[in-house]
Amino acid sequence: MTFLSSGQKGLDAAVAQVFEDSHHAFGLRHIMEELKGELRKGPWSQQIREGIIEDFTRAAQACSIEDFNISIESIRNISSEAADWIIARKPEYWSDAIFRVCRYDHFSSNIVDAFNNWIPTKKEGSIVLMIDSLRMKIMEVIESRREACKVWPGPLTPTMEYKVEEEMLKARKMTVLCSSDTVFEVRCNAIFVVNLANWECTCRRWQLSGLPCMHAVVVFNRTGRSFYDYCSKFFRIESYQLTYSGTIFPIPDMDTVDFECWGKFNSASQATYIR
Ligand SMILES: [Zn+2]
Questions:
Q1: Taking a C-beta distance cutoff of 8 angstroms, is the pair 233, 240 a contact?
Q2: In angstroms, what is the span from residue 139 Cα to ligand 1's centroid?
Q3: What string of pLDDT tens digits covers the 275 residues of the chain?
Q4: Which of 52, 58, 236, 264 is 20 to 30 A from 106 (CA-CA)?
Q5: Average pLDDT of the chain, as a whole number
Q6: Is the peptide bond before 91 cis (omega within 30 degrees of 0)?
Q7: Structural domain includes residue 112
Q8: Strand bridging mode 191-195 / 175-178
Q9: Do 82 and 10 belong together in one domain?
Q10: Cα(271) to centroid of ligand 1, in Å?
Q11: How far is residue 158's CA from residue 206's CA, in Å, rounded to a whole number?
């Protein structure tokens, strides 16, 4: 299980404490905003600051430690303080190259921000009413997503289909040499080895994103294999549907529920509402 959070307020320690075997990734946005704030204190022009932010993004999305280091060194050439600040922000939580498991190409915790915006601040008078307000919003989202995916052509979700198209466009002007039934050498600006049996490419993008990289795509084109047979199952519409297949049961009118008596309900009654 991998959590994606803002990494704020001690979440790194708290999540590890409660979910011992989980992994935890930080969204880039919060670190990026902090970095921008730090850079504004320095003597650099806007152009140089933007260059550092671009390098930081490249470092986070680099697939190999070597490429990560190249981007960090590029920042260090401008400011060793900025590079040290970035390294101190625990890249093992936000760098694709260093993170221990697959991030599935997710660098944003937008869903967390959206959820935070749902939490009412003043209107609801109690925690119970606040939870009920959230429950209603979650029910609406689940329903809208169940409806939306009914018309998707598939087999992947639209976001992933778009990424597939991007990889297909990039997969041109490369030479493929066949080493065995499953191992191929792909030559473009560098040489990459694609292993179909292990779902791996030496560029590491396939392993880190769950979606075959452009080098794998040229191998599929050459050998007549289907791209979709080599995608993570989590990108398929069936997985999306499964995500929203759970049921939130209706709750009776909150005004008529006597919460003091709630705890006295027998277990059968509780089971009706709390499933
Ligand atoms: Zn590759």
A1: no
A2: 40
A3: 888 887 777 888 888 899 988 888 888 888 899 999 999 988 889 999 999 999 999 999 998 999 999 999 999 999 999 999 999 988 999 998 998 888 787 777 666 666 667 776 666 567 877 888 888 888 998 999 999 999 999 899 999 999 988 888 888 789 999 999 999 999 998 999 999 999 999 999 999 889 999 999 999 999 999 999 999 999 999 999 999 998 888 877 766 666 665 555 544 444 444 43
A4: 52
A5: 86
A6: no
A7: no
A8: unpaired
A9: yes
A10: 51
A11: 19
Assess contact for 30 and 8: CB atoms under 8 A.
yes
Instruction: Answer yes or no: do 9 and 87 share one domain.
Output: yes
Number of domains in the chain: 3
141 and 188 part of one domain: no
Residues 265 and 197 in one domain: no
Helix (DSSP H) and strand (DSSP E) numbers for the chain: 13, 6
| Shared-domain flag, residues 266 and 130 | yes
Give me ligand 1 centre to Cα 96, in Å. Answer: 15
- Is the domain of 133 the same as that of 69? no
d(CA 223, ligand 1 centre) in Å: 16
Using the mean position of ligand 1's atoms as its centre, give its distance from the Cα of residue 24 in Å. Answer: 25
Cβ contact 209:156 at 8 Å: no
Range of the domain at 264: 119-151+251-273
Check whether residue 201 and residue 169 sit in a common domain. Answer: yes
